[in-house]
Amino acid sequence: MKKVEAIIRPFKLEDVKIALVNAGIVGMTVSEVRGFGRQKGQVERYRGSEFTVEFLQKLKIEVVVADQNVNDVIKAIGEAAKTGEIGDGKIFVSSIESVVRIRTNETDDSAL
Fold it and tell me: Which of 41, 65, 97, 103 could bond 69 through an S-S bridge, CB–CB 3.0 to 4.6 Å?
């Protein structure tokens, strides 16, 4: 099993959700996060004053999938979240040792 984490622009959430559902993914976790990468923030204006917003708002989507579905999930997220501009985000993949569904005590692939 793999955990796929994607940091995306907030306005791309609906597109990514639809792409994941179309790829057969039935569950995901979404968190509001703040951070920066190469973009290094952006300059904002408020009442005539300029200031730099260093930590930009992003969303983190987490999905745990069977090993054979990882490439489909990466492709779906990548295509749906892409704008072609700096700040589109990143996708991280890590291994998951075990999963337990609390309600039924099912484990691993059957818990997904």
Answer: 65
Asked whether 80 and 9 are in contact (CB, 8 A), the reply is no
Average predicted confidence (pLDDT) for the chain: 89
For residues 54, 58, 111 and 2, what is the CA-based torsion angle, rounded to 10 degrees? -70
Q: Give the β-pairing of 90-95 and 29-35.
A: unpaired
Residue 43 reports pLDDT greater than 90: no
Q: Which domain holds residue 81?
A: 2-111
Q: What is the CATH number of the domain that holds 34?
A: 3.30.70.120
Is residue 42 very low, low, confident or very high in pLDDT (cuts 50, 70, 90)?
A: low
Instruction: Count how many domains the chain has.
Output: 1
Q: CA-to-CA distance for 15 and 38, rounded, in angstroms?
A: 24
Buried b (16+ CB within 10 A) or exposed e, 31-56: eeeeeeeeeeeeeeeeeeeeeeeeeb
- CA–CA gap between residue 96 and residue 112 (Å, rounded): 12
Coil, helix or strand at residue 64: strand
